[in-house]
Design goal:
Blueprint: H1 2-22, H2 25-40, H3 42-48, H4 55-66, H5 72-83, H6 90-105, E1 107-114, H7 120-134, E2 137-144, E3 151-156, E4 159-164, H8 165-178
Parallel strand pairs: 1-2
Antiparallel strand pairs: 1-3, 3-4
Length: 179
């Protein structure tokens, strides 16, 4: 994975610079997310590694999966990745691009796992608290995980805020073992 990130970084940075200069960050973000989904498909992954499938056939498969949504610039980018045998790192390119875009826009993504559904008012309050703490706009991604028993687990960048019942029980068990 680290090797793929190393390979993907120059591509993501180059695309970000071009998209930022042209004012097309959102369009590129959407295109890269769609392409990453296509490339992540198991059948597509097998096709990428198949020596019987030539570059034009591979491009045809990607283009067919994307439909008519690829601009000329994006089509050229896909061709460059295929030519350089880098199509398999497209998901990492999309992730790095999104990180650069979020940084430019002053946005941080928050992964929020909750044991129960969270109503809109509680989510808005939580997002407001996180924005004050991180001094950035927060884009929440909410997931329900019943195994948490209660509370919420929040991941923002490298920071984890564990307010779950399961987390508290684990820390109590750890403390009891230490005594």
């Amino acid at each position: 994975m680290a090797e793929n990130l190393t390979i993907a970084r120059p591509y993501a940075e180059a695309i970000f610079a071009a998209a930022d200069a042209d004012g097309k960050l959102q369009a590129w973000s959407q295109a890269l997310q769609r392409l990453a989904m296509i490339v992540s498909d198991a059948d597509m992954h097998n096709a990428i590694g198949d020596p019987k499938i030539g570059p034009e056939q591979l491009y045809g498969l990607v283009a067919a999966g994307a439909g008519d949504t690829l601009s000329g610039e994006v089509q050229n980018f896909v061709r460059v990745l295929i030519q350089n045998d880098r199509l398999e790192v497209l998901p990492e390119i999309a992730t790095l691009f999104e990180s650069l875009k979020n940084e430019r826009e002053g946005v941080v993504e928050a992964q929020i796992e909750s044991a129960f559904p969270v109503d809109d008012a509680a989510l808005a309050q939580l997002v407001g608290d996180l924005e004050r703490r991180f001094k950035r706009k927060v884009r929440p991604q909410l997931h329900i995980d019943r195994a948490l028993i209660g509370g919420a687990l929040i991941k923002v960048g490298d920071e984890v805020i564990d307010g779950t019942v399961r987390g508290r029980l684990a820390s109590m068990a750890s403390a009891l073992r230490a005594e």
